[in-house]
Structures are given as structure tokens and as C-alpha cells.
Amino acid sequence: ATADIGVTGLAVMGSNLARNFASKGFVTAVHNRSYSKTRALMADHGGDGQFVPSESAADFVASLKTPRKIIIMVKAGGPTDAVIDELSELLEPGDILIDGGNAKFADTIRREAAAKEKGINFVGCGISGGEEGALLGPSIMPGGSAEAYASLGPILEKISAHVDGAPCCTHIGENGAGHFVKMVHNGIEYADMQLIAEAYDLLRRGAGLEPAEIADIFAEWNAGELDSFLIEITAEVLRQVDAETGKPFVDVVVDAAGMKGTGTWTVQTALDLGVPVSGIAEAVFARGLSSSALQRSGAGELPGPNNAWSIKDKDAFVEDVRQALYASKIVAYAQGLDEIVAGAAEYNWDIDLGAVARIWRGGCIIRAVFLNRITEAYDGKAERPASLLFAPYFTSAVAGVQDSWRRVVAGAAQSGIPTPGFGAALAYYDGLRSPRLPAALIQGQRDFFGAHTYKRVDKDGTFHTLWSGDRTEVQA
Ligand code: NBP
């Protein structure tokens, strides 16, 4: 047995991850259900490092040094369970089995508990960055026990992306914590993409700019506080011209956004936890609307406003949109981090939000310079701010841009350009800063029709008004 680490599942993610391990000097055992993929990896990249290929699972397990460390990179769901079942029979107590796929965190909690019965350390590990990240350095979010991380962590840290010398990998928390945080990462990614798309739409339909001009604007934004992978690739996508028609690429692509489910999971989980993640939810719903062919088939028949947006100063408008994007993005991150806090409370995870933001700075899809500010908002603080929006840096950042934000949302509504992400973020922000909310009226309505009771602002206790009687108040 010579291998330091094993990878089973050699489709695009697994083979790139295996190559990453081998390139960092780890002897890497490789295995795949159908041997053809293992053979192809060896033929194409066998010389890039030290690989130990095996055709059978038994040989694969036998090729690893103990305690064995095996990363499963197969399709999430049933295939992952099938691989876990097969390997569990071959592993020994103390071995570490890592699921690097996009598992649901609840599955990870279940799998970790089952593996523990056999003495196996199960690590549900979120990996972000797609194929390129897997090969060159992803952002890695491992859950599982601290003991497992003690021996596994240094290996994962070595193959992860690095920013300012720090690895984009940290122990997130017990059992499902890693996959939970990866799920929220993807939800934030949905929100980020939707907000960028809204900014593009405003510049296009509001200011009448062409995609190539908007590409330049995004490239410029990428040099400032919005500096991020998603803004960078947005500029490139907008600059792309279709070879066949000579039209902008964005004009020849069908405007129906696909999704694989992690955004939906983020929202479903947030609903279960009672956490408002309206920015992420609107992003998922906006993709849903874009793909609702039946409902959209009558698009031209619905009347809109009579007046188009009259934008007198284009540069000022572009700056307004940039600031609205920045503010809305802060809200999306604040909401996603709230979901992590709520998940940690529900499942007893000790999650360090500053460290999470730190490992998202490189390798992953939402990597952005602004994550440094999020890390600073939490690092070394005796008390965590109740929301990212209450961290002084972000309070003043939003205060400074809110006039622009309000102008953009109001103008978009008046001219009929949909901005569900910008609008939901602003409504959330205004909700958060309102000392009184109309929820008091809702409590009254609930008490009226369902005797659901209410609390008073001026004394303790629970009360009910006899709505169908003499309308006096009684203690409930
Ligand atoms: P896929 O998700 O397409 O899965 C293909 C792999 O699963 C192949 O190795 C296949 O083996 C194996 N497999 C299947 Br399908 N059923 C199996 C079974 N019953 N037993 C054993 N192996 C089985 O691969 P991927 O796109 O490389 O993604 C791998 C994981 O990484 C997924 O969970 C994915 O969600 C996650 N992920 C993907 C990305 C990305 O950008 N693609 C990013 C982050 C995470 P075979 O060759 O024998 O059919």
C-alpha cells in the first residue's frame, strides 16, 4: 500500500481532482466503476504524477496507506450511496471516507451517522470551482469530525486555491456542515448572477447601451469594489459575438435559465429554518419565470407603462446601477450568512463565518475581493453582528449608496423593467431598519380569525381580544 489519497469516480470532477492531488506530490489511487475512465486518465495524464490505478474496489482500497482517505466523486444521490455501501465493506475502523459530490446536507448527516457505527470517519465535503477549480485549486468546505480533519485537512489545504498565502479550505463543522455551507454558497451564487443580470438589463433597456458597451462597463466595475469572478466573466460573455450571425452572443441564446437544484435547496432549507433569503429566492423564481414557456407565450399582450425611462445623464445612471448592484449584493450575502447561522443553531455546528468568507475568496464561483470585508466583519469580534448589514463597514457602505439604489428600483418599476433581485433586497433592507413593522396588524388579523393571541408592547403576557363578543381583551 503506497497511496496517500484515493479518488473514486473519474468523470470530469474526479479526474481533475486526482490530477490536482498527484501534481502536489501525493501518491494518488484512482478508481472508477467502469475501468475505461481509469484507463483514459492514465493514458492522458499518467505521467503528470504518481498514480496507482485499480480496476476493482478491493484493489483500490488495498492500494491505500492506513488510515485510508478516499474521496468519492460520483453523481449525488443513489450512486453515492452505492459507492459508500461497497467501500464500507472494505474499509477498516479509522479510515476516512469523503463525499466530494454535491450531496444534500441531510443525506450527509444520515451517511455520517451510519458510517460512525462502523468506525468509519465520514466527511461530507463541499467542493466549488467546477472543472477548472478541481484541477487548479478549488474552494473546499469539509464537514465531519475534527479528528478526521486533523489528518485530512493538510492534504485538502494543499490542493485548494490559495489567496494571500491562505488556503481556501477550512474545517466547517461536524457532519453535514460542509455540504450545508456549500449549498448556501450556491444559493448566493444564484443571487449574485441574478443581480448582475438585472444590472445588464437596466443598462441595456434603460440606458439603451449595446452588449459590447456594457461589457466595458463590467470590466471597469471589476477594477473596483465589485471585483469578482462573476463580474469578470460577465464582461467576457457580453463581449462575445456569435460567429454565425455576427450578433451579440447574448442575443442568440434562448432566454430560459436552467438550474440543477442547489439554489432551490437553499431556499427550501431557509423556509424550514424560517430565515428570509428573499434575494436568493427571487433569483430562483426569476430562473423559473424565464423557463415558463406557457406563461411567457403571451408576453406582448400584457400592457406596460406608457413612458420609457428618460435618462439624461448616462454616466450617472451607470453609477447608480453599480451602486444598486453593490447594495443588493451585500443584502444577498447577509441573508445567506443568516441561513448559515440558523443552520448552525439547528444542527449544533460551530461555524466561523469569517473563515467561511475567507475560503470563498478563491477557487469558487463567488470568489470576490469584497469577501475580505466580510471576513473582517467577523474576525476577532467578541460578538457577531446580528446581520452583516450591522457590521460597521457594510452599514456605511449601504448608507452611501442607498440613494442610487432607491432611484434604480423606483425607475425600473416606473419603466417596467423587472428587477426582482434589486427590489427584494431593498425591501428587506427597509424591513430591517424599520422600528415598527405592519406585522402588528397581521397579529391582529390572526387573533381575529383564529384566536392566535398576541403580545403587547407595554406589558408581559399573552393576550386575546374577544372579537366576536364585546371586544374586550383577556389574558390568554
Ligand atoms: P457526474 O455527476 O456526471 O457522475 C459521473 C460519475 O459517477 C462517473 O464516474 C460514474 O461512473 C459514476 N457513477 C454513477 Br453515474 N453511478 C454510479 C454507481 N452506481 N456506482 C459507482 N459509480 C457511479 O460527474 P461529475 O460531473 O464529475 O461530478 C461528480 C460530483 O461532483 C457530483 O456529485 C457533482 O454534483 C459534483 N460537482 C460537480 C461540479 C461540476 O462543475 N461538474 C462542481 C462541484 C461538484 P461510470 O463512469 O462508471 O459511469
Structure description:
Belongs to the 6-phosphogluconate dehydrogenase family. It comes from Nakamurella panacisegetis. The active site is at residues 182, 189. It is an enzyme of class 1 (oxidoreductase). The longest helix is centred in the C-terminal third of the chain and has 34 residues, at 314-347. The mean pLDDT is 97. This protein has 20 helices and eleven strands. With 476 residues, the protein is an alpha/beta fold. The structure holds nicotinamide 8-bromo-adenine dinucleotide phosphate. Nicotinamide 8-bromo-adenine dinucleotide phosphate is lined by residues 9-14, 32-34, 37, 73-76, 79, 82-83, 101-102, 127, 130-131.
Short description:
By secondary structure, the chain is α/β, with parallel strands linked by helices. It has 20 helices and eleven strands. The protein is 54% helix and 9% strand.
SSE blueprint and pairings:
Layout lengths: L4 E4 L3 H12 L4 E4 L3 H11 L5 E3 L3 H6 L6 E4 L5 H11 L7 E4 L5 H13 L3 E8 L1 H7 L2 E4 L3 H14 L2 E2 L2 E2 L9 H30 L4 H11 L7 H11 L9 H4 L9 H12 L4 H13 L2 H4 L17 H34 L5 H7 L11 H8 L13 H24 L4 H14 L5 H12 L12 E3 L7 E3 L1
Parallel strand pairs: 1-2, 1-4, 2-3, 4-5, 5-6
Antiparallel strand pairs: 6-7, 8-9, 10-11
Helix pairs in contact: 1-6, 8-12, 8-13, 8-15, 9-10, 12-13, 13-19, 15-18, 15-19, 16-17
Bound molecules: nicotinamide 8-bromo-adenine dinucleotide phosphate.
The site of nicotinamide 8-bromo-adenine dinucleotide phosphate has 22 residues, from α1, α4 and α6.
Family: Belongs to the 6-phosphogluconate dehydrogenase family.
Catalytic activity: 6-phospho-D-gluconate + NADP(+) = D-ribulose 5-phosphate + CO2 + NADPH
Protein name: 6-phosphogluconate dehydrogenase, decarboxylating
